[in-house]
Design a protein that fits this description.
This protein has 170 residues and is an alpha+beta fold. Helices cover 18% and strands 33% of the residues. The protein has one domain: Roll (Thiol Ester Dehydrase, Chain A). The longest helix has 20 residues. The protein is globular and about 50 Å long. The N and C termini lie close together (8 Å).
Length: 170
């Protein structure tokens, strides 16, 4: 059902896949490179060479995404804007879901809640996603956002995505 729409992507079954001993993470249905390729083809406005978002890693149940710094993301006062961090949150959640369940581009955000914890410095942002629940119809995750090179979170978010039923995924 999915394969005809995305013939270039080979799916891996990860239910019982062994964990990577180094990272203690299971591989996803799609690798970071495969998610990036899918997004470049299907959502060129969100991904590709000109995108500020770079998928650094993706696995079953999570991912790590870098948002490259741009002067355009600053708000008055020299801090990175809230909408920039919200966009990073949404993009990162989408990457984690695609990596975990495969090419289901019709998965959509149903809720996003973000807490801004401290003023982010004007440099790259790093989002770390952990899916808390990955069901047949809903995915719930949390996103921690850091400034590159800093150990303190600048924002914490939770988000919920609706996953379409198999017959509506084309």
């Amino acid at each position: 059902m999915i394969a005809p729409a995305f013939p270039a992507i080979s799916l891996r079954f990860t239910e019982n896949a062994p964990m990577d001993a180094r990272t203690e993470r299971r591989p996803g249905m799609l690798s970071a490179a495969e998610v990036a390729d899918l997004l470049t083809r299907e959502f060129s406005q969100m991904a590709g060479a000109d995108s500020p978002n770079v998928i650094e890693g993706a696995w079953h149940g999570g991912c790590r995404v870098r948002r490259r710094f741009s002067e355009r993301s600053l708000r008055p006062g020299g801090t990175i804007s809230g909408p920039t961090m919200m966009g990073l949150t949404d993009f990162s959640m989408y990457v984690a879901i695609l990596a975990s369940i495969g090419p289901v581009p019709l998965a959509v955000t149903t809720n996003l809640n973000i807490n801004f914890l401290r003023k982010p410095e004007p440099r790259d942002l790093i989002a770390e996603v952990k899916l808390i629940k990955l069901g047949k119809r809903l995915a719930v995750g949390e996103v921690e956002i850091y400034c590159d090179g800093d150990d303190e979170m600048v924002a914490h978010a939770t988000a919920t995505y609706s996953i379409p039923p198999p017959d509506k995924r084309k």
